[in-house]
Specification:
- By secondary structure, the protein is mainly α.
- About 65% of the residues lie in helices and about 0% in strands.
- It has 13 helices and no strands.
- About 35% of the residues are buried.
């Protein structure tokens, strides 16, 4: 019998041993368009920065008393008339100076956030709902329905946005936040309508829509369960970008004296007042303008980040 080496013995002992069980590879969970978009957004620095800015603005609008205790409508012409900013006193009433009526510019900056945020969110919500419903009906049914609704949309589209809002606001003697919201929403739904109509015309040709019809699904169920979720991506992009535009529109109308008016506190109202004192007190105009620009930029950055995440062609 031949001598066995140590290597032969080890090989003989392991040859009959059962193989170690192999764990099956875990299948990766399929992600939807929204899952992919959220994954892209979390890695986008523009989304992170704009979201942080918008979150701070929302907190300021909801709880302005957390940031200043001074009354923004109380003026002191004797002691504070056109008082210069004291930048070393961060957060104090005199930090950003005083306006022509002896009111704290910083306090008015804080409380003016609420009007701008309410106008922007309210107008965006109204035009998104109205434009989505009308666009979905026109795109899905087509034919005479689409022709009639498209001509109505063309009429509103032909009215210049700011000029039309001025005309609408002239009909109201008391111009409050909700009056401005109505004027902007009355003319602002057309863009969402066009975007939704185009998306629905594309989506309704999909196989899953034809399958739902073949299985006997009703029109309402098809629109809500199949059409709407797959046509909302471009609408969300347009609505997000439009948020900043509505803030700028409200400030423009207030600056022209056709939007919000005192005692309502608004950045546009303060910019209008500051333009009258620009030669002697530039800070009254400067700080509301900076705040307005930052806010509009934050919403535009958010909209661009959402657009890049939801558009497969840009990945």
């Amino acid at each position: 019998m031949p001598d066995l080496t140590k290597t032969d013995i080890v090989a003989a002992e392991t040859s009959g041993a059962p193989a170690a069980p192999v764990e099956p590879a875990k299948a990766e969970k399929a992600r939807s368009l929204w899952g992919d978009a959220w994954a892209d957004l979390r890695r986008n620095p523009y989304f992170v920065i704009s979201s942080a800015l918008i979150f701070v603005l929302l907190v300021i609008a909801a709880f302005p008393g957390w940031f200043t205790s001074i009354d923004p409508t109380k003026g002191d012409l004797v002691n504070h008339f056109l008082g210069k900013p004291e930048l070393a006193k961060v957060g104090s009433p005199e930090w950003l100076g005083w306006d022509g009526q002896g009111r704290s510019v910083y306090a008015r900056l804080i409380y003016g956030t609420r009007a701008s945020v309410i106008v922007a969110i309210s107008v965006t919500a109204i035009v998104t709902v109205l434009g989505s419903i009308t666009g979905m009906i026109a795109g899905y049914f087509g034919g005479v329905t689409d022709a009639i609704m498209s001509r109505i949309t063309d009429i509103f589209f032909g009215i210049p946005f700011l000029l039309g809002a001025m005309v609408v606001l002239q009909a109201f003697t008391d111009r409050t936040v909700w009056t401005v919201v109505f004027a902007l929403a009355f003319l602002g739904w057309t863009q969402i309508n066009r975007v939704m109509r185009g998306a629905v015309i594309t989506v309704k040709q999909a196989d899953y829509v034809h399958a739902a019809k073949a299985l006997g699904a009703g029109t309402t169920r098809i629109l809500i369960k199949h059409i709407l979720p797959n046509a909302m991506a471009p609408v969300i992009v347009v609505a997000t970008i439009a948020l900043g535009g509505y803030i700028a529109a409200e400030a423009t109308l207030s600056y022209l004296g056709l939007g919000l008016a005192s005692p309502t506190i608004s950045w546009g109202v303060d910019i209008s007042a500051g333009s009258q004192q620009i030669r002697v007190a530039q800070h009254i105009l400067l700080y509301p303008s900076i705040m307005l620009s930052i806010t509009v930029l934050a919403f535009i950055m958010l909209g661009e980040a959402v657009r890049n995440a939801l558009d497969p062609k840009l990945r």
